[in-house]
Amino acid sequence: MEVFKEYLARIDNPQHRDRTEEILGWVSKKFPNLMPKMAWNQPMFTDHGTYIIGFSVAKHHLAVAPERAGMIHFSDEIVHAGYEHSKELVRIPWDSPVDFSLLEKMIEFNIWDKADCSTFWRK
Q1: Is this model's pTM higher than 0.90 or not?
Q2: Which residues make Cβ contacts (< 8 Å) with residue 118, sequence separation at least 6?
């Protein structure tokens, strides 16, 4: 989590900062083999040099980006969880609960689906 310390300190809203820290900490504990890193000014996690999941803070939500393949694979579950989404990210409103089981499935899917991936992004 040390790698995210400066990023978290720049989040002005204490509730947003706490929520973001909680989620990043959860990913770190649940998936200790993933490498936390900052890239493109966003916290993300990688596995053997390939992108697994990233996060970004917005005014009304925390954005979760599992790549397009993850969005397609979990589109029904994302809608069922009550989250708005685009082709590339899920928006978790600050005042909504975090569906950690969905987050876990998205991360596990990307780890599995990208096990043989030798590039940062999917081709």
Answers
A1: yes
A2: 49, 50
Please name the residues in contact with 51: beta carbons below 8 A apart, sequence gap of 6 or more: 44, 67, 110, 114, 120, 121
- CATH of the domain spanning 2-113: 3.90.1150.200
pLDDT averaged per 10 residues, the chain (length 123): 94 96 98 97 96 96 95 94 94 96 97 94 87
CA distance 44 to 35: 8
Nearest residue to 101 (alpha-carbon basis) of 115, 84, 81, 86: 81
Packing angle, helices 14-30 and 100-113, rounded to 10: 50
